């Protein structure tokens, strides 16, 4: 029985990936800040899904997640997907509210690092995979995206350093590309983003990445054409 933890699973890519993994027979522990939205997201996925609503930035919630995974006895995949866009409308760095940036950093960088630290022994024991969901804003420079991009760049660095320090674990920072999600809409208020692909279209690429399992590194999901994704089940 393979086991995964997917944070931020009530919507978007986290929800789509959870649905796919459970369809391949995985047991998946999930979380999200919104209790009702998380409950709706996992409805019908069956007993293989363990849903724990809560904020990943809260230490007590992370402890609950670790306890839930530890009770299962193994962890094959950790997906650091939960994140926040931060201050909106997206401000230039000259106008960035530093208190708001503290909150963005806490959610996007410190919380996934703390969770990964706590779960590292289980990941090492199973020769598991860490996937941190990144963004092109981590390596490109777009007006207004400086704060969010800086947190994703930091998460990339931490994830890939963790892979170097722990050769028994494979670590990926993955840019999924633009997607039609609530967060993306929040970044472009009032604009039509219907031309962006749905998160479900990205999931086969992530499954292919897991199937191929290249060395630790930063990858674009688009570079992994869907293949025999069922091979990871």
Secondary structure blueprint with pairings:
Elements: E1 3-6, H1 12-23, E2 27-32, H2 35-42, E3 49-53, H3 59-72, E4 77-80, H4 98-125, E5 129-133, H5 146-165, E6 170-175, H6 182-187, H7 203-212, E7 217-220
Can you walk me through this structure?
The structure is a single chain. By secondary structure, the chain is of the alpha/beta class. It has a seven-stranded parallel sheet with strand order 3-2-1-4-5-6-7, with helices on both faces. It has a single domain (3-232), classed as 3-Layer(aba) Sandwich (Rossmann fold). The protein contains seven helices and seven strands; from the N terminus they run βαβαβαβαβαβααβ. Helix 5 links the parallel strand 5 (129-133) and strand 6.
Entry summary:
The chain has 233 residues and is α/β, with parallel strands linked by helices.
Shape: globular
Q: What percent of residues adopt helix (DSSP H or I)?
A: 40-55%
Instruction: Report the mean per-residue pLDDT as an integer.
Output: 93
Distance between the termini: 9 Å
Features:
alpha/beta, Rossmann fold, 7 strands, 15% strand
């Amino acid at each position: 029985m393979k086991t995964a933890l997917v944070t931020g699973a009530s919507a978007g890519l986290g929800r789509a990936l959870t649905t796919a993994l459970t369809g391949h027979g995985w047991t998946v522990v999930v979380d999200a800040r919104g209790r009702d939205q998380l409950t709706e997201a996992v409805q019908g996925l069956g007993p293989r899904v363990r849903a724990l609503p809560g904020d990943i930035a809260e230490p007590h919630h992370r402890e609950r997640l670790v306890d839930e995974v530890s009770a299962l006895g193994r962890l094959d995949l950790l997906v650091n997907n939960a994140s926040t866009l931060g201050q909106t409308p997206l401000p230039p760095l000259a106008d960035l509210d530093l208190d708001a940036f503290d909150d963005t950093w806490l959610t996007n960088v410190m919380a996934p690092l703390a969770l990964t630290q706590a779960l590292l022994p289980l990941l090492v024991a199973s020769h598991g995979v860490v996937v941190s969901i990144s963004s092109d804003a981590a390596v490109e420079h777009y007006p207004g995206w400086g704060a969010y991009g800086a947190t994703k760049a930091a998460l990339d660095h931490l994830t890939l350093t963790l892979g170097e320090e722990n050769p028994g674990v494979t670590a990926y920072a993955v840019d999924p590309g633009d997607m039609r999600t609530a967060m993306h809409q929040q970044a472009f208020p009032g604009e039509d983003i219907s031309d962006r692909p749905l998160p479900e279209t990205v999931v086969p690429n992530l499954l292919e990445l897991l199937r191929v399992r290249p060395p630790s590194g930063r990858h674009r999901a688009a570079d992994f054409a869907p293949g025999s994704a069922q091979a990871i089940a």
